[in-house]
Amino acid sequence: MYAQMIKSTGQGVKSDEQMTEQERAFQARIDAGEKIEPKDWMPDGYRNNLIRQIGQHAHSEIVGQLPEANWITRAPTLERKANLIAKVQDEAGHGLYLYCAAETLGISRDELVDMLHSGAMKYSSIFNYPTLTWADMGAVGWLVDGAAIMNQVPLQRTSYGPYARAMVRICKEESFHQRQGFHIMMAMCNGNQAQKRMAQDALNRFWFPALMMFGPSDKDSVHSAQSMAWKIKMNTNDELRQKFVDETVPQAHYLGLTIPDEQLVLNEDTGNHDFTEPDWSEFHSILKGDGPCNVERLEVRAKAWEEGAWVRDGMMAHAEKRASRKAAAG
Ligand code: 3HC
Q1: What is the position in ligand 1's atom list of the atom closest to the CA of 215?
Q2: pLDDT by residue for the chain (330 residues), tens digit each?
Q3: d(Cα 53, Cα 227) in Å, to the nearest integer?
Q4: Residue 192 phi/psi, 5° resolution?
Q5: Taking the complete model, does pTM exceed 0.85, yes or no?
Q6: Which residue puts its alpha carbon closest to atom 16 of ligand 1?
């Protein structure tokens, strides 16, 4: 029931000859850097691929609230608590912008939420890991939001207008999240030995899951080729993973922490770090619903949805009443 079951349906990119005239004109608009807007004609594949990616992204934002909400009541100071509340609240806002962007493609929020709860749609693998200590709030902000920004900054240039515009504000806020996480890590690393050990332990547990956030390696990525041709994605999974490693290694050194990868080394020829790939069998097992927290995350989401039904019903009734009053007056 909780497996994330939606099937990958990526197919090869159509050549110029295989495209219809309408598809060729659409591709020319994309190639020229034009934005596609909701009322424009678009191929079904473009629409469905966007619904899949934006929907999964929206789900990731709201499921991503859960591991951190767990620590709001246990934050060590009032200031940390206020920052964490603000961050968790931002993630709800990100979900909202993204669900709205997906709705412009002709799918309703109720349909998307149903697919999340039934396991028919995915959310990011990273949120199926537990947050065991306060240092995890640092590691999540630093690494998870750091990886999210690496992936999302280029999406501000994505071809679909409502998605690109949603990403602008999301990226600004994610950047604050990354800094608040790094600030927690700095405090822990400048603390006593036990605090520094907690910081190292959090890095040890979140390093490889953060690398998995970028998706399977390029040779196994189903959607990259078509998504990049349509500028739904601007970089490949491996390109962004490499960029993340290269930017994060000096930050770990600054903190005095060790990346848990004995093979990690700066390759003098390429200027990039060589590193160990994540354990892809663990990634696939999480996608199948067998991660440490899959069941719990979806149960909590489904419960929140059911318990919030009276609020949604009340707001709909109020909106209908206002609309009928306005119609009667007009
Ligand atoms: N977790 C779960 N599923 C993943 C995944 C991950 N980390 N990485 C890839 N997959 C899934 C894909 O969705 C696809 O499955 P599907 O066909 O059933 O949808 C399958 O694995 C094959 O992967 P592909 O490389 O072909 O998939 P994509 O081209 O879609 O690339 C992606 C994956 C890079 C995550 C891309 O979808 C993307 O850039 N998405 C937008 C960003 C996003 O969703 N980020 C979520 C991060 S968390 C977040 O934003 C919250 C913040 O507050 C921290």
Answers
A1: 8
A2: 233 433 444 557 888 889 999 999 999 999 999 999 999 999 999 999 999 999 999 999 999 999 999 899 999 999 999 999 999 999 999 999 999 999 999 999 999 999 999 999 999 999 999 999 999 999 999 999 999 999 999 999 999 999 999 999 999 999 999 999 999 999 999 999 999 999 999 999 999 999 999 999 999 999 999 999 999 999 999 999 999 999 999 999 999 999 999 999 999 999 999 999 999 999 999 999 999 999 999 999 999 999 999 999 999 999 999 999 999 998
A3: 10
A4: -85, 180
A5: yes
A6: 8
CA 44 to ligand 1 centroid distance, Å? 20
Q: What residues pair up with 234 in beta bridges, in sequence order?
A: none
In the three-class reduction of DSSP (H, G, I as helix; E, B as strand; rest coil), residue 266 is classed as: strand
Query: Bridge-partner residues for 265, per DSSP?
Result: 274
Taking CB atoms and a 6 Å cutoff, what residues make up the pocket around ligand 1?
6, 8, 10, 52-53, 56-57, 60-61, 64, 91, 122, 124-125, 144-145, 148, 151, 212-216, 221-224, 227, 233, 237, 287
DSSP 236: -
| Cα(60) to centroid(ligand 1), Å | 9
